[in-house]
Specification:
This protein is 76% helix and 0% strand. The protein is an all-alpha fold. The mean pLDDT is 87. It comes from Paludifilum halophilum.
Amino acid sequence: MSVLNDYQDWKNFLSQRVDQAQSLGMDEEKIKDVAYQIGDYLAQDIDPKNEQERVLKDLWDAADEQEQRTMAGLMVKLVHDGNK
């Protein structure tokens, strides 16, 4: 089963990757940049698997690059703050 099939699984997966990146010394801006790249890839190449992913894709598609970067940063913050 893919982590993209369930929104909670996706959030858990992203949280683990953020934690891993931080433990390897990656700074917050680099993590946000990688999150933006992943978000762009998902929006362009992956069909949403659930309602939450569809909303995120629709928002991503409506946003300009700066807004997309903000969304990516918010996703990182969401999963990072959820671990506190």
